[in-house]
User: Fold Ornithine carbamoyltransferase from Methanobacterium alkalithermotolerans.
Amino acid sequence: MKHLLSICDIRHQISPLLEIADKFKKNQMEENPLQGKTLAMIFEKSSTRTRISFEVGMNQLGGTGLYLSTDDLQIGRGEPISDTARAMSRYVDGIMIRASKHTDVIELAKNSTVPVINGLTDLEHPCQALADMQTIKEHKGNFKGKIVFAGDGNNVCNSLLLICAILGMDMAVACPVGYEPPAEIIKKATSMALESGAHLEITPDITSAVTDADVIYTDVWVSMGDESQIKERIESFKPYQVNEELMSMAREDAIFMHCLPAIRGQETTAEVIDGPQSVVWDQAENRLHAQKAILYSFLK
Ligand code: CP
Ligand code: NVA
Assistant:
């Protein structure tokens, strides 16, 4: 039994998972492989894509997705996460959780006898990273190019940096000083990049980072939980906005990516996200296919 808490947990399965995701997208997989199975979906934070794609995904696989808000669960009234994990494991075949603290998800997994899947924490967003690589493969054909992640060294950035290090894709994180990914993530990514040959860079210099970019990726400047820092964050991130001027400095065929939800006028502009280089809707769609591959592999 395995959990998916970090993208590193599926380090050796990424290529086969991407193949399965592609087959699900093309309707080439067996029907109802998860018939009779139930996925508990715990949400401590808001979600549109993750919630819908997991619920619809379970449905399409012949199983059931059970939406559970922490406001309604006894966790919200103080029941330990370890007890929740033990009880839940007696009812369901897998648990997907979106939580504020990554350490809570580790605690849940430690006490669960069914697979636990990370649907976003403060540290990582592994399901997003898998869907992102599916999208890059579709639009670029391979992982030989370079991604520039502009903005906050956050959960989405962390999983992307790790998956690039695993797959050998070059990546630059262009962020203001003080907003770099955590040291533990950089250390893990750097050590895996030694094996894969990925060139990784963390730099405050966005203009030089984008000159040879094949993919420009950004995310909100204020993640869920960072709301108290809105003012200083908007000020610090202003030079990192992905606008038409920045896009024009990258390779001519560069694509624009964003995990969504987006704020037009902050981390990107309407011209870019709604423009011809944007692949954000394919990216959102691929959450469904990539997660069906994850569910198939973990719950079957
Ligand atoms: N990208 C993503 O996880 O979106 P939601 O917050 O809508 O689930
Ligand atoms: N970094 C964002 C991603 C949302 C999908 C957040 O954590 O709020």
